[in-house]
Specification:
Elements lengths: L2 H17 L5 E5 L5 H9 L4 E4 L2 H11 L7 E4 L8 H5 L4 E7 L2 H9 L8 E6 L14 H9 L7 E7 L9 H23 L4 E3 L6 H6 L4 E4 L1 H4 L1
Bound molecules: pyridoxal-5'-phosphate.
Length: 226
């Protein structure tokens, strides 16, 4: 790893940290990136990393478990239930942002004895209503999903996740509408459950809007590496 690369990563990290409000955290999306690049960001102080494939996440987590003892791994991609056992045995797994339907959640609850420690989940909501996006589609099913997690479970509902509409001409207005909707859902569901929930929204293209909407987690990949 070149010293130049370290300097570039340090600059990128500083630049983004300067823009983040106190209650917004950076989730660095490291999918397709190398072990060395992740280690570099870790050495610069970054702790939260996101991956969208279980196999890749599992390999990276194994490779880095000794040299990055404080790393927190986040699964952010669509999950198949036959990957749950592998996912649940990943060292330093912190949260799953892509819990997109009740069926998957039921299977997670059934396999939770595999978990060595607590893990957070974000219920994914389809705010853009695009057909290719997954996620809960209405408040009632979202609410019953949150309520289906027993209080003594190792699985803890941390909050809600969404993806803004991408690649449309009006993506900024669209992202704002999506993020506002998720904020409303977070407040409504939080009141119903009697506790504070977090949001996970915003990627390289629309993170400025997510910051304006006070997202608790922004998930940045592309812009942190190019
Ligand atoms: C890849 C990915 C991101 C990061 O997207 P960039 O455009 O690379 O910043 C965020 N969230 C999810 C769910 C992703 O799959």
């Amino acid at each position: 790893m070149t010293p130049e690369k370290k300097a570039i990563f340090a600059q990128k990290l500083q630049a983004i940290q300067n823009q983040l409000p106190a209650d917004t955290k950076l989730l660095l999306v490291s999918k397709t990136r190398s072990i060395e690049e992740i280690q570099l960001y870790y050495d610069l102080g970054q702790r939260d990393f996101g991956e969208n494939r279980v196999q890749e996440l599992s390999e990276k987590a194994e490779a880095l478990k000794v040299s990055c003892p404080e790393i927190r791994w986040h699964m952010i991609g669509h999950l198949q239930s036959n990957k749950l056992n592998q996912l649940f045995s990943i060292p330093h797994l912190f949260a799953i942002h892509s819990v997109d339907d009740q069926d998957l959640l039921n299977k997670m609850l059934k396999s939770e004895q595999r978990l060595g420690h607590e893990v957070g989940i974000f219920l994914q909501f389809n705010t853009s209503k695009e057909e290719q996006k997954s996620g809960f589609e209405d408040y009632e099913t979202l609410k019953s999903a949150a309520q289906s997690v027993p209080s003594n479970s190792k699985i803890k509902v941390l909050g809600l996740m969404t993806m803004g509409t991408l690649r449309t001409e009006a993506f900024e207005a669209e992202a704002k509408r999506c993020f506002e909707e998720l904020n409303h859902l977070k407040i409504r569901l939080g009141l119903e459950l009697g506790r504070k929930l977090e949001t996970s929204m915003g990627m390289s293209q629309d993170f400025r809007i997510a910051i304006e909407e006070r997202s608790n987690w922004i998930r940045l990949g592309t812009m942190m590496f190019q």
